[in-house]
Hints:
Elements: H1 12-18, H2 40-48, E1 51-64, E2 76-77, H3 79-102, E3 107-118, E4 121-136, E5 150-151, H4 156-164, E6 167-180, H5 186-191, H6 200-223, E7 228-237, E8 245-257
Parallel strand pairs: 3-5
Antiparallel strand pairs: 1-4, 2-6, 3-4, 6-8, 7-8
Helix pairs in contact: 2-4
Amino acid sequence: MSQPQPQNILSQTALARLRQSGPGELAQSQPTLFTSDLSVNEFALLHEAGFSPLGLVMGSSIYHVGYQFQVWNQSQELQVLTQAMYTAREYAIARMEAEADALGADGIVGVRLDYKTYSWGEDLIEFLAVGTAVRSSRGGNWRTPAGKPFTSDLSGQEMWTLVKTGHAPVSFVLGTCVYHVAHQSFRQAWKTIGQNTEMPNFTQATYDAREIAMSRMQAEAERDGASGIVGVRVVENNHVWGAHAIEFLALGTSIRPLPGEAALPQPTMVMPMTD
Length: 275
């Protein structure tokens, strides 16, 4: 899948909000405060790892999903739907990255990608990417090879562990595949009545669709020069397409090793205080 380029990547409303934060090209000379969705523990551990939050960043895209013809008895990828779901998410992520870039951030932590539908448009889906922009207080190059802020869905605790073990996040990677699982014929359905038996056509279709999603996620990590992906999960949704059209979405954070060697500090026993 190619990297899309959304039009009007940042609205004037977003720019006005970003001017209240900093540091960054848009920041006021005296920044007011940062915003974040970090818990207290995440904030403390990110500070320990050398990162300071700059602001909550987000990107949104409401996308019209086109019509896709489905063959009743044939399992196949629904490429029109796949492209729509992929592009809409990438638009949202690109706008979130642009907000972080405007703040002068090194990266974004705790990225979450949500979606919703609207009653005033059955073929419309909104994707919303949200995370906390951070900047390293210890220097170093934390950006991606393309010069963008890193993106990661790791929590503050996971980010601390990753850095302490000598690795850095590169990008929030994803791969998607919308697949039509063929219906059973009358003869196939009749043969399985009252029996314990595997459904080969269903198994193969869902297996193939997951593999396509996984391979696209891996391709994104390879594109960004990552050494691996952590926190991988595969999510299934059918949205509004009916029971036999399923989206398989693979998500994770690609990482790379940092220069030098690092290791987690040795654990110590902490005795509770008693009266």
